[in-house]
Amino acid sequence: MKRISFSLFFLSLLLSTGSVSAQQAQVIAHRGYWTVDGSAQNSISSLQHADSVEVYGSEFDVHLTADDIPVVFHDSKVNEMAIQEVPYADLQSVVLTNGESIPTLQEYLDAAQGLNTRLIFELKSHKTPERDREAARKVVDMIDAAGLTGRTEYIAFSLEAAKALHRYSPQTPVYYLNGDLDPQAVKALGFAGIDYNYKVMQKNPDWFKQAKELGLKVNVWTVNDPAVMQEMIESGADFITTDYPEAAKKAVLLHSSK
Ligand code: MG
Questions:
Q1: Which of 62, 119, 184, 235 lies 20 to 30 Å (CA to CA) from residue 47?
Q2: pTM higher than 0.85 for the full model?
């Protein structure tokens, strides 16, 4: 009994000084937790499944349709239709692999209201810088109206979109995805961090340290291979974005108990 309370004392001491929690990577479900039976990428059930395994956040992709309805879907095309070039009505009959339809952002946010997981919101690149900005304006307003600003983090490949998201929602963390800017450049833009393909980080291993020194967070995607998972956790990634969130949570736990 004495020994247990002694270790608990040290554990709480470590946690309170931040030396444990600061090192522990957090897990983000990539396109939700869809690798479970009955789910599908970017479906509402994938968001619910991610929430049910208590990950830090659930990532999803948003396009603006030709008639300005934001929808949650990854690819630029579905059934030969370019998502951004058709009206929402044309997408309504599309069925995802689990039988759900393509969620509108509004439906997705409504479903998120009762959940706890953070919303890792990827705004897809649009055709022109103007359209990137219009999409950013629209989604920031919807997140604000839903009262979910404090639970949202934006990510984008388009520098134009990332800048607009940061401008319209300065209090919300914005991460840049494209992998072509070093931590110094990302810091200068005012973003919260880098969210890069793990191969970019393997090529630039000093970016982990540089980011940390600049106060930026590092997220890596899409980390599904257990060996890469371990490598990224050991390298000090703050977030692991993966299609297998439960496996990643176990890997983090294993690492922290070493
Ligand atoms: Mg994405």
A1: 235
A2: yes
Q: Tell me the CA–centroid distance for residue 118 and ligand 1, in Å.
A: 15
Could you tell me the residue range of the domain that residue 82 belongs to? 23-256
Cα(24) to centroid of ligand 1, in Å? 23
State in Å: Cα 5 to ligand 1 middle.
44
Question: Would 137 be classed as within a structural domain?
Answer: yes
| DSSP string over 79-146 | TTEEGGGS-GGGGTT-B-TTSPBPPBHHHHHHHHTT--SEEEEEEPP-SSHHHHHHHHHHHHHHHHHT
User: Is residue 29, in this structure, part of any structural domain at all?
Assistant: yes
- CATH assignment of the domain containing 68: 3.20.20.190
Cα 197 to ligand 1 centre (Å): 11
Domain contains 15: no
pLDDT tens digit sequence for 105-140: 999 999 999 999 999 999 999 999 999 999 999 999
Q: What is the number of domains present in the chain?
A: 1
Does residue 18 form part of some domain? Answer: no
Mean pLDDT of 204-224: 98
Distance from the alpha carbon of residue 122 to the mean position of ligand 1, in angstroms: 5
Residues lying with their CB under 5 A of ligand 1, a single-atom ion: 61, 122
The rounded Å distance from CA 75 to ligand 1 centre is 9
